[in-house]
Amino acid sequence: MPIPRRYSTDAIVLSRFDYGEADRILTLITPGSGKLKAIAKGIRRPTSRIGGSLEPFAELNVLLARGRTFEVVTEVRVGHAWLNLRDSLESAATAWYLAELADRSLEERHAAEPVYALLRRAYELLDAGMAPGRVARWYEMHLADELGVRPEVDRCVECDRVLEVDGRFRWVPSLGGVLCDRCPGPPHDRSGLTLEALKLLKAYQRQDVEAIAGLRLGLATEREVEAALRDFLRYVLERDARSLAFLDEIRQDTPIATAIPS
Question: Regarding beta strands 169-172 and 58-65, do their DSSP bridges make them parallel or antiparallel, or are they unpaired?
Answer without folding.
Answer: unpaired
